[in-house]
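Here is an idea for our session: we take a single protein and study its fold together. To get us started, please write out a protein record for me. Once you have written the record down, we can walk along the chain together.
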Amino acid sequence: MSLEIYQHPEEFVLESGRKIEGLEIGYHTYGNLNKHRDNVVWVCHALTANSDVFDWWKGFVGEGCVFNPEEHFIVCANILGSPYGTTNPLSINPATGQPYYLSFPQFTIRDIVKSHQLLAEHLGIGQIQTLIGGSLGGQQAMEWSISEPSRIKNLILIATNAKHSPWGIAFNESQRMAITADRTFYANKPDGGAKGLKAARSFALLSYRNYKTYGLTQQEEQADVTDNFRASSYQSYQGEKLVKRFNAYSYWYLTKVMDSHDVGRGRKSIEKALSNIIAKTLVIGIRTDLLFPIEEQEYLFQHIPKAAFAELHCFQGHDGFLIETEGLSNLVSAFFKTDVRGKIIELQQTA
């Protein structure tokens, strides 16, 4: 399926009170709504991904997978601020006729969710059979399930948290410092801050992987190497890849969006907010995850009423949920075969 664009006919009011005129949302759909309109699977994507979930989550979403177009109507929408079809800092500001750049209004996870709720209405979607997301996508899915609890039947939260941690915020601030150290970031041009973005991606990779990951994948084969190490070239290569497909302005704003995540804001407490989730919920953690430690997922499991917990066993760290799709599929399949109503259970990953 190709990218589609929804154009919102009214002004979009952000949590801050600021407004966006002419909001556009890029999205992909796969499969068809059944006659009961109860086969919707909505995927919330992470920081630099896009709405083409069949491309970046192969083996988990797609033909023959746990979530497939033969059985499900799968929706994935590009998030606000991301440059893959949705209004973002490089979009034209109707008030000036020029790109927003750093005049783009700051926004939050709740604003992203609100925009996707508008898209769901446009698509004629009432109940969502399964809402799923990992990392920043999990933050969105959680927020949606709290703001519209009766709309979500099943919820799958992967490698995410109820409030972004000081550790995670520090990683994001370090990345923003790298971006703003590149003075071209303030030049108001599409490739502004490109060198800073490359450095920021290098920081990010250290949080997405871990010591063992690099030891297994970037170890030198020869003992006499004294420069130009594999790990060095890997960091540079990954940074260049992101620069070619993203922009520093979107990245800068979206890291701030992640920092804003706190389901307890204005809701008395985090525990109170999580208690509002009525969906049958699967929380998945990864013990090797440095960025979203498994204790954060255990906390969600303890405070979401109808929750099950599963550990995805992998050495890759935070990005493991994008890589170990067979193990992830096994866990999700087991979840749908298990009655967790009112029970505290733990799912074991099968081979």
